[in-house]
Amino acid sequence: MPDAFITHNGLFENIDYKKLTDECLDILGFDSYPAFNERYALGGGRWGVYRLALTRGCSDKFLVLEQQAGPGGQNSYVLPTPLPGQIRLWTYQSIANGAVSVLYFCYRTALFGAEQLWYGIYDHDLEENYRSRGIRQIASEIGRVGDLFLKERMHNEVAFFYDYHNVCNN
User: Fold this and answer.
1) Largest interatomic CA distance in the chain
2) 13-16: long-range contacts (C-beta < 8 A, 24 or more apart)?
3) What would the pLDDT profile of 2-18 be if each residue is shown by its tens digit?
4) Phi, psi dihedrals of residue 108, rounded to the nearest 5°
5) Residue 163 forms beta bridges with which residues?
6) Cα(79)–Cα(55) distance, rounded to whole angstroms?
7) Contact 111, 124 (CB under 8 A)
């Protein structure tokens, strides 16, 4: 398939994503669930941006393969529902950090199965809600300036050093 590409969703601590991207991937993917670390009000949103910066350090262009679109969890935990405007903020944080595509998880909340507590853009009833209206707004905005996001690249003047081998060999 000449038009296909190879990607992988990350970041997990036991994989050197810079090496994986350089040697095996066409483009790196990332799963963005900022509420995981914000459920106890840790960092006020900084943890998600830190993870995006780590992803950008492995691949200057990347995909967000799963952007949190609603509350989620399992029987042992439930993440908070994103506030109105929060999904839009997370989407633009991803784009500002180098994402060339943002896919939301998930479109519709599952009616049964292991992930039925992961709420999507639409709830079980498929009725319009503030999440779906917010994502429709994002699509409209990006439709007007989307080429700019694909063509422009950041030119960073400041960086932080992340040594995979130092972090993962403790």
Assistant:
1) 48
2) 13/167, 13/168, 14/168, 16/164, 16/165, 16/168
3) 688 899 887 887 888 88
4) -130, 140
5) none
6) 23
7) yes
DSSP H or E run through 65: strand 62-68
By three-state DSSP, how is residue 144 classified? helix
Domain boundaries, the chain: 9-168
Do residues 97 and 56 make contact, with C-beta atoms less than 8 angstroms apart? yes
Measured CA to CA in angstroms, residue 96 lies from 11, 47, 170 at distances of: 18, 15, 32
Q: Where do the H-state alpha helices sit in the chain? A: 17-23, 35-38, 46-58, 86-96, 130-151, 164-168
pLDDT digits (tens, 9 = 90+) for 16-66: 888 999 999 999 999 998 887 766 655 566 777 888 888 888 887 899 999
Pairing mode of beta strands 62-68, 77-78: unpaired
| Model confidence, pTM | 0.85
Q: Which superfamily is assigned to 9-168 in CATH? A: Glycosidases (3.20.20.80)
Residue with tokens 């839009």: 88
Structural element, H or E, at residue 32: strand 28-32
